[in-house]
Amino acid sequence: MLRMTSPLNTPSPAVGSATDERWSPRLWGTLLVLCAAMFLDALDVSMVGVALPSIAGDLGLSTATLQWIVSGYILGYGGLLLLGGRAADLLGRRRVFLIALAVFAVASLLGGLVDSGPLLIASRFIKGLSAAFTAPAGLSIITTTFKEGPQRNRALSIYTTCAATGFSMGLVLSGLLTELSWRWTMLLPAPIALIALVAGLRMIPHSDREDTRGGYDVPGAVTGTAAMLLLVFTVVQAPEVGWTSARTLLSFLATAALLAAFVTIERRSASPLLRLGVLRSGTQLRAQLGAAAFFGSYVAFQFIVTQYMQSLLGWSALQTALAFLPAGLLVALSSTKVGDVVDRFGTPRVIATGFTFLVAAYAIFLQVDLTPRYAAVILPSMLLLGAACALTFPSLNIQATNGVHDDEQGMVSGLLNTSVQVGGAVFLAVVTAVITAGGHEGTSPASPQAVLDSFRPGLAVVTAIALAGLLITLTGLRADRRARAPQPSVVVAASAGTRAERAEPVGARD
Questions:
Q1: What are the Polar residues biased-composition ranges (predicted)?
Q2: CA–CA distance, 306 with 312 (Å, rounded to integer)
Q3: Where are the domains of the chain?
Q4: Any residues with CB less than 8 A from the CB of 104 and at least 6 apart, and which?
Q5: Dihedral through CA 193, CA 196, CA 198, CA 202, nearest 10?
Q6: Backbone dihedral angles phi then psi of residue 369, each to the nearest 5 degrees
Q7: How many alpha carbons fall within 13 Å on the CB side of residue 245?
Q8: Residues 334-376: pLDDT tens digits?
Q9: Which of 275, 264, 297, 294 is nearest to 82 (CA)?
Q10: Nearest to 150 by CA among 18, 331, 11
């Protein structure tokens, strides 16, 4: 049986060496399959937004029901990522990835054919659930196939750029497809996922056999998954039912209790779903917090901007999508270059630069008014946003996965994706609450200026979230300077430290 390439194993001749300067056709094929799956995950998050009005009109859905078409996907995706990442480590990354991709294709097909709101929401939840397994499995396949360093950095820059491109291009594609029918936005991922599945069966190398020497952490899986599901559900519903309502407060209390139980179980488990020791690393912690701040601010920004362009400027869905196009194009064009930038400057510097661009993009957009100012405000913001996505997202993935042992790559990948999704859900809910608190809903109808005035505090909060991400990143620059100083034994020492930490007795880990 072929074994996946890893920093600690010799690459299989049948797969092609990821340590060589030239990648074999099969290695490129593997990367393209994984990129296709990540592209679909990101595409599905953004593409449904523009189609919501058409879905509501066709199926007769209320606003409360309609929002669950978006929230159902987020709930399945964000709630099960930790379980998906650990399942990839234990059951085999290839197996988990391909099964989940097949489920994604079937759910996409059903989503375009159903004729009721509840069935559509169910299909969206199943798609989110399958993405919760493909995302960490795909990322861990890359990190165990490509040797840590320039080769892995190049692969991750291409991979994560596909995610950012999918998120950006989803708006454009949905604007075009919705002109035909909203069903095409649901059906489009199905054939792409099927093609990727067939290619994956041939291209993706077989991973190691499942490792269950420590047993399955069933209590950790139950409490961890329940905590993430309840947390995402609570923050999605909070703007509607009220942040201080008894239901919201009790849900947060229950989430805290589940998380406390989860931490206790993980500290004592011989084979934990999440080894808490990984969070003792400042580099790892900064990557997780940075990912939450980056994606959370972007999702909230996109939500405000699409409302501003369509509600206040009167732009069509397609015009709104095209306004985001410069950011998507910039990300796509830079896909093969970011790895070289990271090799030269290191992830902390690149991430800090990306967050600086992000803060500048949001700050510039604060200048918008009721008159379109595309050349002076919107275009510069989108170009800075594209540069920020191109630099930051790949670098965060590289920073999170470097120095992690092969059999924990799925776990760390699941943790990173959980930070991304939970950050998106939490910060979008916070920004929505800030906008709602503007009070324009009390007027009937609200004046355009009142609506714009309610958007400004939301944009200010978005900018503050990005600024917090920048400050978190800056704390790592001093450590990065020390690490980049000439220390020939640093890699060996880090590897030995990782192995020693993993060999600690269970009671001494945390």
A1: 1-12
A2: 10
A3: 25-209+273-500, 218-272
A4: 37, 40, 127, 130, 131, 134, 189, 193
A5: -160
A6: -140, -165
A7: 12
A8: 766 788 888 888 889 999 999 999 999 999 999 998 888 888 9
A9: 275
A10: 18
Q: Residues 428-484: pLDDT tens digits?
A: 888 888 887 765 544 456 788 888 888 999 999 999 999 999 999 998 787 666 655
Give me the DSSP letters along 438-484: T-GGGSSSPPHHHHHHHHHHHHHHHHHHHHHHHHHHHTTHHHHHHHH
SS3 category, 3: coil
Write the CATH number of the domain with boundaries 25-209+273-500: 1.20.1250.20
pTM of the model: 0.76
Whole-number Å distance between alpha carbons of 446 and 304 = 16
What is the Cα–Cα distance from 240 to 432, expressed in whole angstroms?
10
Reported confidence tier of residue 509, pLDDT bands at 50, 70, 90? very low
Type of residue found at 270: A
Total residues found in the chain within this entry = 510
The two tokens of residue 297 are 């601010």
Q: In 279-318, where do the E strands start and end?
A: none
Query: Which residues are CB-neighbours of 425 under 8 A, at least 6 positions away?
Result: 74, 78, 232, 235, 236
The two tokens of residue 412 are: 């760390």
Q: Which residues contact 57 (CB under 8 A, 6 or more apart)?
A: none
CA 11 to chain centroid, in Å, comes to 29
pLDDT category at 251 given cuts 50, 70, 90 is: very high
Name the nearest CA neighbour of 258 among 285, 278, 234, 293: 234
Closest CA to 135 of 428, 418, 338: 418
Hey, how many other C-beta atoms are within 10 angstroms of the C-beta on 393? 28
Name the residue type at position 100: A
Kindly give the residue spans of alpha helices, DSSP state H, lying in 117-149.
Answer: 117-145
